[in-house]
Amino acid sequence: MLHVYLDPCTVNSRKVLAGLALLGTEYKYHFIDYFAGQQKSEDFKKINPSATLPAATDDDLTLTESNAILQYAADLEGSSAYPKDLKKRANINRWLLWEASAWFPSCYVYLVEFVVKPLLKAEPDQAAIDAQAPRWTQLATILDQTLSKSKWLTGENISIADIAIAAPMHLHKAQQLPLDNLPHLKRWIADIEQLSCWQQTQRAVDKALLPEVAAANGSQPVLKGNGANGTTPKDVRAEFNYTKDVQQATELYFYESEKSKNIHEPGDDPHDMTVHDGWHRSDTFSVDKEGFSLHEFKTAYDQWDDDATVAKSFYPEIVDFLKKNQGAKRVLVFDHTIRSKTNAAKKLTQESNTSQRAPVTLVHCDYTAESGPLRVQQLLGDEAQDLLSRRVAFFNVWKPIRRVVEEHPLAMCDVSSSPPADFFKLYLRYRDRNGENYVMRHNPDHKWWYFPRMTPDQVILLKTFDSETDGRARWVGHSAFRDPTSADDAPFRESVEIRTIAFF
Fold first, then answer.
1. Which residues contact 252 (CB under 8 A, 6 or more apart)?
2. pLDDT tier at 342 (50, 70, 90 boundaries)?
3. Fewer CB within 10 Å, N or C, the chain?
4. What pLDDT sits at residue 217?
5. Nearest alpha-carbon partner for 429 in 365, 348, 334, 344
6. What's the pTM?
């Protein structure tokens, strides 16, 4: 496997990360802190004696030039972004050489003067800018004229040359690059900025070089999918089990009963839907807007087969996480479910050992407007009335365990695309009580999201009930689904869901 060593905030590191994402190359990521000088360490200089970033290795091969890394990765993938046709390849190669020898040095002057120096509390040298301006205008005009003839630099299809040329001007606004009289170049860089492979790396750049922008856009860390490997967004088409809204009640019985005959069960209306890869905007999802969010969550806990130990040792970590993340005054963890291969054959309605189950491939939400408050009363008795006089929210914390998720990932139906009318009640019949979930009727406007190849160091936070009715998301539909791109021999998904109530 390709190993890359870089800091996403540097021009050539960002070029490599965005290029690898465009190509769909799997790689192992090694963060080298540029501003801390880790590239000058003796360990790193064994990889790259020049002490510059980025670098890459693949077994006995070492590459220390960003464009060479992209060329090699493209050949690994056989990508159309670096075609085999000799003339097309020569055209791309000449832009790669032009970028390294002419374009990068010219743009770099603007980067140093208008971005790096202010970051270091130094004043820009206007004389250096004035001296470079004619050369930069000459080079930029070449690009503008080229782009007047085609969408991308080498034709109607994007290539690694586009990523390479975009990298030195990746902070063009902060660099104060004079683009106003270069309409084709300006259009092209705007198109680059709409690429998901480019957007994936923006937050790391902002955080390191434009702290005010990063603060304005929120302080959550950039997360990476595919087990810390970069990938292109992997939207897929998959089947989701919606439920028909019929005249009779929709029910599930969790025990044998004559009453369970001829009932209307959920999941009788399957539809193929597009599921969008959310990694490119993983730090922007909100439980109050889309109904879910993604977070880093590192834990040393690994005793998932022992329910009592999960409750004793892992629940407190969840409590601390939700208090910090949601600002809750109090958090009650009241239940959890482990989903693993051992439980694959279990029926959804199995009555015993309910903490061990298989993934649920039914579009649903765990609580309703009525069952949420009722659950608070059931769990907290005399305290409930006072607690329910203030905001109460239920959150599920969904976390992969033991390995990267390679099949049956979890998908969420964006609340902004699923109005309340799309939800209706599923009645759960137990021996000693009745419960309620929501199921969903199909709506072609539903927008589904997932995070392919999540790791055990990440969690999805799902809002399953919120007592507030101020316009924020109150609950989110979700479902596991069969990913058509999963390998036939992919290891069974193993995950844990922790069910909680947060009091505000």
1. 265, 266, 348, 349, 426, 427, 428, 429
2. low
3. N
4. 52
5. 348
6. 0.57
